[in-house]
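QA checklist item 7 of 12: single-chain prediction sanity check.
[x] sequence parsed
[x] length recorded as 363
[x] structure emitted
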Amino acid sequence: MDLHALIRAEAPVAEQQRALTEPVLAALVDHGVHRMIAPKRYGGAELGLPEWSREVQELSRSDASTGWTAMTTTISSSLAWYLPQEAADEVFSDPRALIAGTAAPLGKAVEADGGYRVTGRWGWGSAVAYSSWVIGGTLTPVGPRLAVYPREDVTIHDTWHAAGLRATSSHEFSLTDAFLPSRRAVWPIGITPGIEGPITVFPYFSFLAVGVASVCLGVARRAIDEIEALAVEKVPQYATSRLAEQTGVQIELALMEARLSSATAFLHEALSAAWDAALTGAAAADPVKARLRLACSFASGEATDVAQKAFAAGGGSSVFESSALQRCLRDVHVAAQHTVVSRRMLETYSMLKLGLAPDMTRF
């Protein structure tokens, strides 16, 4: 079965069990989705980020939770570029191994021989339950680090009872007094990476914003697909013509398409500009980074509104579990709640344009 057909077929079951199904997980790994932007040394495809964004959009169009899982695991696999080679070989030598986690430095480390002893608890652990290795942002005596722990060190807490993205299994996870070798702790800013490449020049903290925006765009595209299909079939109660023949629906659908296409084009343009700079080995200038984050937040907001309008246009048909429109509505709203695409990002862009010297350290 085609990958996208499989994802769509399995999505209702995944939604009910709050976890991706085994056939989908196996297919994602078989297709190398989890290593789309990882180095070729570890079975990665080394996709450029504009192409990666399009792939995430298409996967999310098939199912938001699957697209989100692909997005988070590929971002996590980018650590293969930054880790010292010994650590990268340890974590990524198995080409089928997944890695996922949370960057927030909620782990507390104390020095130990050869590394640290770490205790912490993290939220938003998308795909951690499926992973062989887990990233937990950790505050060490020398500053915050993205630390990598074997899955057996980690306890998962069943906390992901959410309105949308239900099958991402974004549970909380914790570890207690776990040993962390120094080699498996890295901060991906201002270092010499283990493997050089354009991705290590791209602004690291923009990865996730691009990924979240790409998921949102894909879900909104699915919502348009669904309302188009419904419109040519449905004659609303007390009406004599199909939705497709009603002027109001025609105008609404055209505006949905225009808004989504515009937001998608803006993200692609801003992302391509930042990626082109990375291809030359040059760090993106602050205006380029700010414009990219503007595009990410704008895309997420527009996608949310488009999915809302598609849901409303479907009328009563949208509210049933059998309708993908209700799932699109819930999924895109949950995705767009992520802090990396919040409306606060718009302030930073304007402050920079107006000469107010915003804090760009997380851009």
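[x] summary fact logged: Residues 247-279 form the longest helix (33 residues).
[ ] second reviewer sign-off
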